[in-house]
Amino acid sequence: MRLDDLIKSPGEWLQGSGPQSPIVISSRCRLARNLSDFPFSHWADESQRAAVAEGITLAAHGVGQLADALEVDLDAIEELDRLLLVERHLISPEQADGPGGRRVIIGEREMLSLMVNEEDHLRIQCLTSGFAVTDVWRLANTLDDELGATLDFAYSSEWGYLTACPTNVGTGMRASAMLHLPALVMSRQINKVIQAIGKLGLVARGLFGEGTQPSGNFFQISNQITLGQSEDAVIGGLESVVRQIVGHEKTAREMLLRQKQAQTEDRVFRAAGLLRHARIISSQETIDLLSDLRLGVDLGLIEDVSPAAVNELFILTQPAHLQKLCGKPLEPAERDIRRADIIRQRLADGR
Amino acid sequence: MPTVCRRERRSRLMELCQVCGKNPATVHYTEIENNQMTEMHLCEECARKQGGALKAPFTWQELLAGLADLDLAPKAPPDTDEKCSQCGMTYSQFRERARLGCPHCYQSFHAGLEQLLGRIHGSTHHTGKVPSLPAGEVDDRRGELRRLRSDLARAVEEEAFEEAARLRDRIRQLQAEEAQK
């Protein structure tokens, strides 16, 4: 597999399948680990970072699940390619801008990935579509066991896995579910939800994780606490909270259809009309409209577009994907035109 | 501290600025504060005036720096700035960056960190995963792999590439044997 092949299809997490997939887009678990003999990446020098990268890459070679993995030296690729990886959630925005020794090792269907020399030496990530937080935790945990058999991870019995930032120390685990909650936003109940989850040690973030804003009615719900709670307890808590939010969103959707049918249909079909006919469209407008379209697909109002096709548009219309699809760098104004072209084409193709 | 996002949307014709109530609102903010999300609709001019308050997205670093300051003022007076014996990071450098220098820093700054961790997580004891291979029970091949890996890391660091290549071959060989088990 090569980097350029990635763009041919969306990753596993955008398949639009899996449990509760109309509302839970994807589930993710990442584990932060560091090698005990080295300074953390930001404090290490070039040669130490290179040694960390080398050690982790070799350990990954010994892991069966990563047999056909794609290894990418982030220092050696173009900025546009790094942005592409950020848009696919395979590296973080901070890693894309970070210092040398950065690598990412990407497993089959992009479900498993290892970020090397991010904030921590190693971040093990497992990402899949639908509501499967327990599964992603188990997969990440197995991979951690295999890597930990030959890598000496920094660990103390008092404080658990030691991380560069004290906010991750302990389990080093951040588990999350990406939710699409248009009905809770439209019915103005989303504030209550965000407030309530804050009291439970969980937090709502935007599409691209820490530091990003909720947009297109997408909310990433993740745990905040990593010390003093076991992984299973955190996963269990997250699972039950997400299940409740999904329940509220379903109720809100039914209410929309029952009490505000004309307004809901109007919103959905306006979005569909704009997406099918616009000639210039910004990335933010696209996300907002695709969110409305997706709601229409989920409610059965739009029948000739599949959930997977909408999901695919979310990723293909992002700036780096768009430029890779067109095969050249584009100015923002030109991008808005090409974005509209691609959306029209894909929606005309149906499914 | 609020997280703020500015986005300019399709113009909504009938909406007026929430501040002056005169000009059409063309700038729309979403703000999350105390886990509460609010939207603001302003005209260009009022948005510019509010710019200072609305611009800066808050970061973990700022929050942590604040927490560390708050807690540690009495414990770590500025003239006795502790230093990690392993990596040389000082406590005030940690406060600035909100990131520690190396795993050993957790021992070097134990007292200060204990308070800080209590504030962040509401706990100071790990109750999660324990690495599955405790030191005494590591079987020979895995133990050797571990040793070889740290030797390799050292060789790469010292740019002793011949040595590194030799170690790498040995690691590959052991890994292949491991895989066949």
What does this structure look like?
The complex is a heterodimer of chains A (351) and B (181). Chain A has 351 residues and is an alpha+beta fold. Chain A has 12 helices and 10 strands. Chain A has helices at 46-61, 79-87, 93-97, 133-148, 182-186, 190-199, 231-259, 261-277, 283-298, 307-316, 319-326, 332-348, and strands at 24-33, 70-73, 103-106, 112-116, 122-129, 155-156, 160-161, 173-180, 202-205, 218-223. Chain A has an 8-stranded antiparallel β-sheet with strand order 2-3-4-5-1-8-10-9, with helices on one face. Chain A has a two-stranded antiparallel ribbon with strand order 6-7. Chain A is globular, with a radius of gyration of 21 Å. In chain A, 56% of the residues are buried. The mean pLDDT of chain A is 91. Chain B is mainly alpha-helical. In chain B, strands 1-2-3 form a 3-stranded antiparallel β-sheet. In chain B, a hairpin with a 2-residue loop joins strand 2 (27-33) and strand 3 (36-42). In chain B, helix 2 (60-72) packs across helix 5 and helix 6 runs antiparallel to helix 7 (161-180). The longest helix of chain B is centred in the last third of the chain and has 20 residues, at 161-180. The model of chain B is unreliable at 1-13, 52-58, 70-79 and 134-138 (pLDDT under 50). Chains A and B meet through helix 1, helix 4, strand 6, strand 7 and helix 6 of A and strand 1, strand 3, helix 5, helix 6 and helix 7 of B.
